């Protein structure tokens, strides 16, 4: 049996980004149970030692311990192994939670990949390959609990304006990074509007477009993104940070999002509904920021601020600090519209 999971993480020097992300992942049941049961040990094929996975699992064990003698877990060992595994990450002073999440999932995946190491060929299959074939190819070399839970497939459709040829490319994603629409009035926007902007048709001029297969040259074309394959868990990154030539700025626009029944049907071939279970928040400015998390368990929502854990009500969850949203596929299905 396991504890409540309502245990904080010590801040060991600007590590709130790590603490917030770990709390969100710790509330991803399919990953938590896999770690607590150490299920990766028998099924891993990778020759690499699962050092980071072991350290990560140890943190989760501390968080979900029934005794909860300690109400705070120290992530020091896990963080130092992470920095060893991803050396270039330790260079930054202000760490980005979403970047950390990407590196962490990627590294965990490599350690617990069920596939033997296969040298990747530089050239991907031809663009016209079907999505299913591409996905099969992906699973032939990348297959792990991380992929089971977080990986989806994005389709990018190009339409040549000269010859009207359509072509698709397919990419694997572990999170959707959404732009936030600009509002002159500074009013609030909805997650739906961010998704609409993300999947909106975009005009590419000759210089920025890929070769048209039929014209055999670069032509003006339009591009549209959609979800081809839905993951179990969809991680949505609200891209609040804009890098310009000289500086990084942060958008503090309030983006409202549904707690249950997020319908991604309009952005893909099937109607799946998703329920929110964790939020990573960013407060403050680019240089003076602080990350926290809100996570749900069987008994409700809690606010995780490094070592402190306090219950929160659902109406406190939506703020203009929401930065990364974690949704899991719900058991209910939307009414079929297609
Ligand atoms: C988080 O905790 C710090 C102290 O560790 C405190 O200064 C800060 O106000 C807390 N943030 C929130 C939003 O409660
Ligand atoms: Zn063409």
TrEMBL record:
Per the record's keyword annotation, is Zinc included, yes or no? yes
Q: Which biological processes are named by the entry's GO terms? A: central nervous system morphogenesis; chromatin organization; cranial skeletal system development; protein deubiquitination; proteolysis
Gene3D superfamilies per the record? Cysteine proteinases
GO-annotated cellular components: cytoplasm; nucleus
- Keyword terms of this UniProt record: Activator, Chromatin regulator, Cytoplasm, Hydrolase, Metal-binding, Nucleus, Protease, Thiol protease, Transcription, Transcription regulation, Ubl conjugation pathway, Zinc
Pfam families for the chain = UCH (PF00443)
Q: Which SUPFAM superfamilies match?
A: Cysteine proteinases (SSF54001)
The protein's superkingdom reads Eukaryota
> What start-end ranges are recorded for coiled-coil regions in this protein?
none
What catalytic activity does the UniProt entry give for this protein? Thiol-dependent hydrolysis of ester, thioester, amide, peptide and isopeptide bonds formed by the C-terminal Gly of ubiquitin (a 76-residue protein attached to proteins as an intracellular targeting signal)
EC code: 3.4.19.12
Q: Which InterPro entries match?
A: Papain-like_cys_pep_sf, Peptidase_C19_UCH, Ub_carboxyl-term_hydrolase, USP, USP_CS
Report domain USP positions.
7-330
Q: Where in the cell is it found?
A: Cytoplasm; Nucleus
Family of this protein: Belongs to the peptidase C19 family. USP21 subfamily.
The protein's matches in PANTHER family, at most eight in alphabetical order, are given as:
UBIQUITIN CARBOXYL-TERMINAL HYDROLASE (PTHR21646), UBIQUITIN CARBOXYL-TERMINAL HYDROLASE 21 (PTHR21646:SF6)
Q: How does this polypeptide assemble, per the annotation? A: Interacts with BEND3.
This chain belongs to the protein called: Ubiquitin carboxyl-terminal hydrolase 21
> Which source organism does the UniProt entry give?
Lates calcarifer (Barramundi)
Chain's gene name: USP21
